Amino acid sequence: xxxxxxxxxxGKILEVEDLAxxxxxxxxxxxxxxxxxxxxxxxxxxxxxCGKTTLLRTLIGLLPPLAGKIRIAGEEFGPEMEREALDxxxxxxxxxxxxxxxxxxxxxxxxxxxxxxxxxxxPRQIIDEIVRLKLDMVRLSEAIYQAPSDLSGGQLKRAxxxxxxxxxxxxxxxxEPTSGLDPATATEIDRLLLVLRKLMGITIVSISHELAxxxxxxxxxxxxxxxxGIIARGTLAELKQADDDRVQSFFRRHIDRRQEGLA
Length: 263
Ligand SMILES: Nc1ncnc2c1ncn2[C@@H]1O[C@H](COP(=O)(O)OP(=O)(O)OP(=O)(O)O)[C@@H](O)[C@H]1O
Ligand SMILES: [Mg+2]
Hints:
The protein is α/β, with parallel strands linked by helices. The protein folds into two domains: 9-92 and 171-259, Rossmann fold; 108-168. It is 38% helix and 24% strand. It has helices at residues 52-59, 83-91, 108-119, 124-137, 153-164, 183-200, 211-217, 236-240, 245-259, and strands at 12-23, 26-37, 41-45, 67-72, 75-76, 93-96, 171-175, 203-207, 220-225, 229-234. The strands form two sheets. A six-stranded mixed beta sheet has the order 6-7-8-3-9-10, sandwiched between helices. Helix 3 packs across helix 4. Adenosine-5'-triphosphate binds next to helix 1.
C-alpha cells in the first residue's frame, strides 16, 4: 500500500492525534487522541447526542477535521490530499451508516455492487460473484433480488454490512449496527461482526450505546463526553471500574434500562 504499509505504524491501523471535530468551525470536541490496532474491534461509546456520529463522519472524510491528524494504514488523511491518495483511502474502509443508507430504487445485488463499481474496474461477472459471496457471508443470499423496502430491520443491517465489506476493506466502520433491533436480532448482528473479523481479519470500529452489544464483541473502547472528549479508555471491564461519575452514570443508566426491559 502506502508509507507505513497496510498495517500502519507498529500494527496501528488508525491513529487519531489531537483531533477537533464539529460543524461550521464550531468544535464539539477537541484534543481527541486514540489508536486502533489491526484486527481489533474498537468501540466508541457515549450518550445520545454526544458526538459519536460526528466523530465517525470525520474519520471517514465526510466532515473536515477542525484540527489534528488522522492516519489510516500509516497515511495521513487530510483535505490537501491528492485525488489518487484520497481514492486509495476511500477504498480502504467500508461504512455501515446509522440510518442504513441503502439506495431504495436498487435491489440488494445492485446495492452491494456499488462500491465495486465505484472503486474497481473488475468485469461484471467477477463483480456478480463477489456480490453473491458477500451476501452469502451475511446470510442474505435468498434476498439478492429484493428491494430494501421489502426487508426487515435485521436484514437491512445485514445488507448494509454486505455492501460495506464488498471491497474487502481494511477497516469496517459501523454506526450503531444494532440500534432499533430486538435483542435476539441484535445478538445475531454482534455475532456476524465477530465472524467477519475472523473470516476477513478485518479491523472494526463500531459506535454503540448498547451495552449488550459492547459486551459481545468489544476488545477496546473509548467513552466520549460532549464537553470533555474522551473520558475513559480500555477494555469494557476497565471502563466499568473507571473512577469517573460520568462513566458510572452511563453504566447505571444502561443497567436501569435493562431492568426495565428497554435494552
Ligand atoms: N449537520 C449538523 N450540523 C450541526 N450540528 C449537528 C449536525 N449533525 C449533528 N449535529 C449536532 O452535533 C451533536 C452531536 O451529534 P451526533 O449525531 O454526532 O451525536 P451521536 O452521539 O451520534 O448521537 P446518537 O447516539 O443519538 O446517534 C448534536 O448536538 C447534534 O445536534
Ligand atoms: Mg449517532
